[in-house]
Structures
1.
Amino acid sequence: NIALRRPAAQSSIYNSANQPGLAVDGNTDTAWTGGSCVHTAQETGPWWSVDLGFPRNVGIVTVYNRQDCCWDRINPFRIHIGNSTDVAANARCGDSHTFPTDRVDMTVSCFGMRGQYVGILLPGSGRILQLCEVEVY
């Protein structure tokens, strides 16, 4: 997991307990009460990203979704990979993705992509991004 404990950022912070680094702390607990999920304010195009330090080859990205409430807020979502700190400016890994209702995690193949930043973006307005862990291999 090349994202583990790397610097992370997000478009907004719901409260001080929801810092972006929680999504790369190695804790895959998907309950809000576990204290390891990130959460943005309600906004247009909320995003979260991790800085891998330098451009890296990315094979797969695994996202752990919050399960104790509001699991559907993440749908649809996009994964972006590239060298810009602007998540939306980076290339998309596939199209928009939809998290299955019966899964706590979802793995997306991004083979052939390369970049310093891996981001999750929710397209549209009135969106809230909450996720509990992101792994990059």
2.
Amino acid sequence: MLQNRLRTIHGGTLAALVDLGGSLAVASTGRFATGVSTDLNVTYLSPGGREGDVLTGTATCDKIGRTLAYTSVIFTNSKGQLAARGSHTKYVAATMGEDGPYVVPAEAVEELEDDETGKSRN
């Protein structure tokens, strides 16, 4: 575990997880490309993440517009208490084509499903 001097999870680790979680939240809308970060904020609400502790992160795409996507990530401990929350704004205009957002082609999804099951459709 990446710890700070107080032996709790390092704040930079949570910030990196907000970055990743925000990107995955944008990807969950079906976009193949998730854009670039324009803003990232983390609020640490209570100490947490000591060695052996379990923190759960939940990422949500709150709003996605023509140019920006707004996401939020919350971290709770094993008791369900809020330990930290983050927000992540992404510039997504470059992820748009003439017909809408770039999405994963259906053929690629089928290939991924084949790889997961180990079965070939051919």
